[in-house]
Amino acid sequence: MSEMRLHDPAGNRLYLNAEERAAFLTAARRQPARDRTLCEMLHWTGCRPSELLEITPARIDLSGGSITLRSLKKRKDASGRQKVIFRSVPVPAEFLDTLNTAHGIREAQRSRKKAAQPIWNLGRVRVWQIVKGVMIEAGVPDAPHRSPKGLRHGFGVHATVQGVPLHMLQRWLGHAQLSTTAIYADAVGKEEKDIAARMWR
């Protein structure tokens, strides 16, 4: 059984809902280029901050419309050796244009050295501070979901509401088990109403 939850023991929501995700994106687009693209990357890919910090220009497919992420959760193969797992997540072309303009992705890809350097030269604490600041500006309430993890869970709930198959969402989020991804099928509130409404269409 998965340990991951969409609510804490007190019943507080641990994910950003659709309205909060939209407000976060709007607030992110008012930030300086580095912070804007960082926040948009988390919003559009559902990646973990530690995964974001490893993204290099070489992992941006501008023409293919995707970002390649390295899953950082430790996994072993049948022989007990550590497995390195990469996954590609599709993102909007508009975001890739913003990313390219802000960080010179296409230009950096022409140099092996520059293509291998992380796009955001920051620590995880700084990422957390940036995201929290943008969430405060966006009016996200001071609650357990006001965090990068809340943004990741919000991505999962949003994908489920939009009808993304769980096996595809599993791949995008880098979950080892489908049972972990299945928690997003337990979305509640407006998200659950949106899913349920499809029954009467």
TrEMBL record:
Signal peptide: none
Biological process according to GO: DNA integration; DNA recombination
InterPro entries in UniProt: DNA_brk_join_enz, Integrase-like_cat_sf, Integrase_catalytic, Tyrosine_recombinase_XerCD
GO MF annotation list: DNA binding
Keywords assigned: DNA integration, DNA recombination
One Pfam family this sequence matches: Phage_integrase
Keyword Glycoprotein in record: no
Domain Tyr recombinase: residue ranges: 11-197
CDD domains the UniProt entry points to: DNA_BRE_C (cd00397)
SUPFAM superfamilies, alphabetized: DNA breaking-rejoining enzymes
Name of this protein: Phage integrase family protein
